Amino acid sequence: MAVPDTLTTDEELVDARIRRLLATHDPATTPVVDFLGARFDAGLAWVSFPEGYGGLGLSPGLQGAVERAMHDAGAPNESDRNVIGYGMGAPTVLVHGTEEQRRRFLRPLFTCEEIWCQLFSEPGAGSDVAGLATRAVRDGDEWVVNGQKVWTTLAHTARWGMLLARTDPDVPKHRGLTYFVVDMHAPGVEVRPLRQMTGDAEFNEVFFTDVRIPDSARLDAVGAGWRVAMTTLMNERVAIGGGVPARNAGPITEALRIWRAQPRPAAALRDRFMATWVEAEVARLTNMRARALRSAGTPGPEGSVAKLMGAELNKRVYELCVDLLGMEGTLFPSHYEMRRPERATFSGGEDVRRSFLRSRANSIEGGTSEIMRNILGERVLGLPGEPRGDKDVAWAEIPRN
Fold it and tell me: Do residues 220 and 96 touch, judged by C-beta distance below 8 A?
């Protein structure tokens, strides 16, 4: 891998770390966990994290160079297995965790020895997460948790969950929340799969019955849960929609493949295909610019831009794919095959018909498109906020069904 003459000092440091890692740990022969552990120790897990925590304290814009080098070397990439941990758990623990918590959680998270999930949404608190009802009551050095969460991605494989619970019902809803790391194998935690129309069960509902969490597993102060949750959510939106694939990579790849296989596509479909391709390229370049400009730390509203664009674009791309397939696009012969437990993974798979069905969730998971538009309208455009009549009312006094 040649080193360009124009490298800056930071780029040279990253390049040197990459060379040293690949020289001492051959991706073809080193066990996956060992390779990922060595990558973490080299500061190449998340280069914007401080040294000692899987990073080098550099600009997050340099992470792309690491990922490209790892890809070119055939190094293992386990991010899909622990997508919640990589995109949301790690930055939340870094910002709000204690020294002991960072040392305990970050490395096994990156090596995927410990999978993470996010326990926010509830049957009565979806878009209005702050209205959640799961209670955590202090009992000495422990907290006793009772309640239910829903639509929890990867709860069935997770070791740790990021739990937002209500610890004070007598203050306004945003101020009575506390954030915990919960052991998903603890007594009283029950995970039930939710079957989707794809046949998979990557989402789950989770029940807590007198689950005991040590106070040492609390992130940040009691009552500071909403602040911690914002760190998680802002990183979640970047993780979902902020990727920068190569040109013609990602979902648009399938549209290109199907397009090229068509004998004579209709003119209307040609115009629609080109408009969709341009939109995909604009989204890619926008994310590239946002990544280059973003400083280290919790992302701002740009994450909502990426998430909104990515969710709506994915749906349009896969709608185009099934339309290009014609009658074949209406068939889904592998539905029952997809019901096998080993197929209950996070990624969409190769069948575009399945991806079309899965993409319906993109505008809901990680914050609905409507919520993203509210955030952009209020925080970017400065438009008047949505009416919030319960803002200063104690949670216990808010009427609920």
Answer: yes
pTM: 0.82
Contact between 62 and 11 (Cβ < 8 Å): yes
Q: Exposure string (b/e) for 103-136, b if CB count within 10 Å is 16 or more?
A: ebbbbbbbbbebbbbbbbbbeebbeebbbbbbbb
Please report how the helices 267-293 and 302-324 are oriented relative to each other, as an axis angle in degrees rounded to 10. 160
Q: For residue 85, which of 48, 116, 124 has the smallest C-alpha distance?
A: 116
pLDDT band at 200 (very low <50, low <70, confident <90, very high): confident
User: By C-alpha distance, which of 88, 81, 92, 54 is closest to 158?
Assistant: 81
Q: Is 298 exposed, middle or buried (0-12, 13-18, 19+ CB in 10 A)?
A: middle
Based on the residue annotation, tell me whether 386 is a catalytic residue of this protein: no
Q: Residue 155 burial (CB < 10 Å; 0-12/13-18/19+)? A: buried
With 0-12 / 13-18 / 19 or more C-beta atoms within 10 angstroms meaning exposed / middle / buried, residue 23 is exposed
Q: What domains are there in the chain, each with its CATH number?
A: 13-110 (1.10.540), 116-222 (2.40.110.10), 229-380 (1.20.140.10)
Largest CA distance in the chain: 72
Best mean pLDDT range from 54-68, 206-220, 295-309, 376-390: 206-220
Q: Of 122, 202, 205, 236, which one is the catalytic site residue?
A: 236
Query: What pLDDT is recorded for position 234?
Result: 82
Q: Are 259 and 56 in contact (CB under 8 A)?
A: no
Dist CA 24 CA 30 (whole Å): 10
Task: Tell whether the torsion through CA atoms of 207, 211, 213 and 218 is positive or negative.
Answer: positive
Distance CA 85, CA 260 (A): 37
